[in-house]
Amino acid sequence: MPLSKIQSESVNLADTFAFTGTVTGVGNMILVSSGSSTTNAGSLEIGLNYSNYEHFLLLLSIKGTSTSSSENLDVRWKRDGQSYNTGSSDYSVTGHYQDGNTNRNANSQNTMELFWTNYPATNWVASIWLWNVGNTTQQNKLESSIMKAKSDGNAAYVAHGAINNETNNLNKIIETQFFFTAGDVDEYAYKLYGVSG
Fold it and tell me: Which of 116, 125, 146, 184 could be stapled to 72 by a disulfide with Cβ–Cβ 3.0 to 4.6 Å?
């Protein structure tokens, strides 16, 4: 750092600095990918195979084509070296539908769920934490908060999910998939942040 950047034995943080090395010892959230589309697709897949990150924060806006009031927004994970887990008892999910004041507890099913028994064809916005998906020593976990805001009815859900079976939930997760139980994904926008430190 040039001497001119130092004032009275301190660093002037109003200045601009160019680092040539690696900054360590600090926790960071770094944008690792983003995407958006208004073209119909059966599902949305987002890659998680980043060697520098074990945890991720996903900010997701998503809308489906189905106008049915009894559908779910489902999630599946792809483990390293495997296809998507789709077995009938591969996942567990717990959650709470806040507007309906009802709980969800499903210990063996073929997906995790961000919302259940609602309308896909509205604008949903979610913040989704993906814990330990980049390592092989600690159990992975999904933690989600999702909401739609409409004049004809709001809805909000919180959900927690994981892959069942200790052997499977210690595998690295390299991709996540979102899809509705009816219809297509109509549009989406997302930002994926890797968490380090």
Answer: 116
Between CA 163 and CA 130 the distance in angstroms is 12
**pLDDT tens string 116-167:** 999 999 999 999 999 999 999 999 999 999 999 775 678 999 999 998 877 6
Q: In angstroms, rounded to a whole number, what is the distance separating the alpha carbons of residues 29 and 37?
A: 24
Task: Decide: 161 and 75 in contact? Cβ < 8 Å.
Answer: yes
In whole angstroms, what is the distance from residue 137 CA to residue 128 CA?
21
Distance CA(42)–CA(96), nearest Å, equals: 26
Could you tell me the pTM of the whole model?
0.84
3-state DSSP of 125-148:
EEEEEEECCCCCCCCCEEEEEEEE
User: Cβ neighbours of residue 3 under 8 Å, at least 6 residues apart?
Assistant: none
Question: pLDDT of 81-115, one tens digit each?
Answer: 999 999 889 999 999 998 778 888 888 889 999 99
Q: How far apart are CA 58 and CA 77, in angstroms?
A: 14
11, 136 Cβ separation under 8 angstroms: no
